[in-house]
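Fold these two proteins, one after the other.
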Amino acid sequence: MTELIWDGKYKDGKKQGPVRIALPFQTIETVNESAQDRRRNLELFASGRSTEWRNRLIWGDKKYVLPSLLAELAGKIDLIYIDPPFDTGADFSFTATIPEADSEGIEFTKQPSLLEQKAYRDTWGVDPEDRQRGVTSTDRYIKWFYETAIILRELLAENGTLYVHCNQTMLPFLRGALDDLFGLEKPHERRDLALREQTEVQLSKLLPRDWECVLVYARSIGNQTFHHQLVPVKEVQQQAVVAWDPIAKKRIAKRDESGDIIYETRTEKLMGSVWTIPIVHPIAHERTGYDTQKPEPLLEGILKVSSNEGDLVLDCFVGSGTTAAVAEKLGRRWIACDIGRFAIHTARKRLLGIRGLKPFVVQNLGKYERQAWQVAEFPSNGKNYLEEQHQREAAYRRFILDLYRATPIAGHAWLHGTKGGRMVHVAAVDAPVTQADVKAIARETWKAIGTGKGGGGEKKEGSFAGAQDDKARKAEGSFAGAQDDRGMKAAVDILGWEFALEVNELAKNVAAESRVDVSFKKIPREVLEKKAVEQGDVRFFELGALSVDAKAKGRELTLKVTDFVIPTDDIPEEARKAIKHRSQLIDYWAVDWDFKDDTFHNQWQAYRTRKEPKIELETKYEYKEGGKYQVVVKVIDILGNDTTKTVEVVVG
């Protein structure tokens, strides 16, 4: 039998499978959940009982996400649709808009981040040594796809179906890989979808590529969920009524008592395997800014054919969120995943526009993914676990300091390096930077400056766009003159993965009280793989600064976003000129009116759409009971990055 072979399929005569690292998910936001549902789920969780199902929007690499779903959902997913990336880089680009009051705004293309580029290098990249022995990018792609499909097949229910959207270039390779995985015992029962695009054919000496294919594979042929769909005929027809004749053993036309053939008027026919799908028009309200966005009628047809109401649907390359949106509208449960931050934000906005939206959660693998990365990336050979952990942490901090272009120092508990006359702290991979951490770091910074153990000064690099300028920092305290004789200032950069709420506000208090200038820089997810780092400039952006005005009158609270400052390095210069007011950078904001130090519960939101590009920056809420409440405001900018602000209020 003919077999498709690719580099890496076999090792020592055995087929190779995917890396299986199962990690726990972290819920970072709950959307559209009522206070009653929130309380009921907390009671169920506290009593050890199962909580109600929540649809899931997961931000993370499918390499970690899919194995992490297996323990809970192996053999339980009824329908999987994927549209895997085929063009190196293009599928991660998106169009962002700087809104303007008197026009449709200035659009610009946001190029893939280093993390997204890294995903493509893992998919297509070939090392020079491998290339010399004949390995191609197609080998790498098939290997990547096959390992993904293995996990997807294990997630499928016995009556489940996998739909794989692919272009003509990769069609024979993906078909060969899936045939290898699902088997060819009944090849005559394989059925694919051919999609004709409603586009104009351009003059060329080549036949147009005006169709794509969706490969269809059932976990168990003959047992899969399948519902025939009727579609309108172009012209009303008179068609003979046919029935099975047991004597002739075939279908024949039925006749009346006079022997005449019986005809019926047909306005509908069974839907075939060639679908004509309209494209998403560039100015349509459905358009989200993704070039690879799929039209809703395509997913609507697939879900109606191969799933029932209440069934579970998965898309691990969700992009603009079409699969999740259609599943929600058709009453299916869903799990949608993507590696792109902006994809998750776009899908969330799109879902919020659906009337009757059920509550869903936004999740990631957070610290667990970083812990796995630290163990894999920084091997150690200590005598015991504690010594090995210490070696890993030291190697990790040297790695981050090198990326930040800082000089390592020793002899401190909280300080790890220096840069531009400032101390540098590198936070752990598995814990957020807390207010207690900031105070301890500030104290040790003063001690280091006072004892002269701060290390030498280096040439200071230019500041990032959106960072507080010197005037703003001097206004917070008189730290400007506090430095040792080698130019080391009472100032510290804190590099972290996650930050506790209100650490930015704390920095101002620290600066005023202890005269230490504290700046927070977010460690980008791009550093999770050294290969990604080697091919780009990793930038550590300062946390966004959000100002919110809160006024209580009786039991009514009024919130207003008054200022918002973020780094603008990823916005092209021409687009940056269109920014007249910082509120133009806000794409979405949401409020948790009663934050209980758990997950952010999205209880109210406002956001821009193509149809409604304006956004209200003020909202009101009336509490049922008077008292003291902790309110959290989350703002997401036009690039998909989020900033939070906590406000304590007393009402009524």
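Now the second one:
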Amino acid sequence: MAQKATCTASWSHAPGIEPLQGRHCVTDDAKNAAALAAKGAEELVDPASARAKPLPRQLPVVRGPDLPGTGAALVLAPARMINEVLYCERLMYLEFVQGEWADNVFTVDGQVVHRKVNEEVKPLRPARTAPPPESDEEVEEERPYVARSVWLSSERLGITAKIDLVEVEGGNVVPVEYKRSTRPDVPEGAYLPERAQVCAQVLLLREHGYACDSGEIYYAKDRQRVPIAMPEWLIDRTLQAAARIRELALKGELPPPLDDSPKCHGCSLVGICLPDETRALARDEEPAELEDDPSFDVGDDPWGLAVGIERPERGVRRLFPARDDKLPVYVQTQGAAIRLEGERLIVQSKGENAREARLTNTSHVALYGSVNLSTPALRTLLDRGIPVLFFSYGGWFTGQASGHDSKNVELRLAQYAATQDRERCLKLARGFVSSKISNCRTLLRRNHAKPDAIALSELKQLARKAREAEAIESLLGIEGTAARRYFAEFAGMLKGTGISEFDLEGRNRRPPRDPINALLSFTYSLLTKELTLAIRAVGLDALLGFYHQPHFGRPSLALDLMEEFRPVIADSVVIGAINTGVVKSDDFVRAAGAVALTTPARKRLILAFERRMDSLVTHPIFDYRISYRRVLEVQARLLSRVLLGELPRYPEFRIR
């Protein structure tokens, strides 16, 4: 049996449509095609006995036996992906080949529409063969019935499908595809991608010996059923689309994004695809998705998703939410117990009233020290894709428990290959370090009462040298020199009364020996946690970096991406916490030459950090406003595009 979840520990780094309306709802073949790869096509030859099982939403490549004389595996194209490839090749590739998935309001609505079909599994009986013409045998007419969640595959057609519903009456069968939206106002009653999806289901039923002349689409919102005829040209287009899926899957190259297309509005994968951002950063002209075949054209905005949306003449559209509505749950009271009640996490501490957090509103759970988490709660968190992160009582980030990793094997292979290329590692490292130094300089200019002109000039020169460094070892020296100059001026950014008690004599850690370094170490731990989560969400390996070399248990890639955000997020939180009185000189515990935060002060600092992560910032490259937490995800995804060869360089995040 496959392992349900993975648990990573012992990190040594210190202290953190239908998404488109009317289409792309979560269908059964999108939920269950993972079982094809796991069980093998040989178990699917008897569709009458197949039973639907709850499976991950991500959809891997479904492969049949090897093609004769080639040694290459036959890719069985799901009917749902035939819909996708006619709508957007990139969307199909992200879902089918790379296994990416994200929910939005449209996909969740689609799940509700398909719930009855998924829960009430009714098998399709084998096709009945007619007796020979010369036979006197009488065939008893079969009573009409309805089969649900019918899974069929054909190696000859190269297609597989999970059919929502099949109506059987008088020897004929009719597949019915459920859609969450309203019937579109077009003469055919449905758009080409949806008709091709139904056509694939009809072809599969015919292949398995059933008499099937047409199919239907049921639009749940207005409760209308639309018959779908099967002309020869539609059959040809469907088979061409299946062949195109196999071609793209075997080619192993992510298709280019749509160019300023209204189709992107409402797509649940738009935050993963980043179409406008990718095109804005790419230099070379990409080839067209499909040949200029008018039969594949579905118009500029066939589903009317861009109505009322301003379309700037130039610039990058922000097609995803500026903030994540979900929030993290921090538990640091020693001896606290977390249990599960329905859809809520209940946190019970001794002598305090129980507190609760809804699972639907929780992004991750961070536990500090001795906090008890029940097994049912942990299992549910892993099933929901909510990571659980473990810290020592003092804030040392020790590891995390999470569900299955991303299925994007292509990205992992590209990352592993890049780490073996010293030139690529150096190119990325130059950007990380130079961007960090530039942001440190900007922070001094913004917050220092009287910034030292010599210090600013030195940091500017060091940032330039970092961009021209010829070896990673040289970058380490440049970064160290810049850090010493920066922290020598750090105290000048502190304001208010009692500042004299916050002395800083350079950066020190493990353990920190003064209050400012204790604050910096704790916020750096929180930031490490955030970058690790973003990296895992994208599908990268957090342990394998480019600037920070691999070290046992260290999230090197998280530290790489963290460099440019240290001054922007962590240092800014510390400066703001001191200047606004969030933490004071008596909020620290001093013992054996080390300094640590008290529990109440740590709570206040976590709140300050979360406010910073949730605050909106204008992206310096794309010029739209998103939260810092969203920025981390965008930057991690752009790094993945660089590794896959879609972008020529990593776009550094440099504040103005």
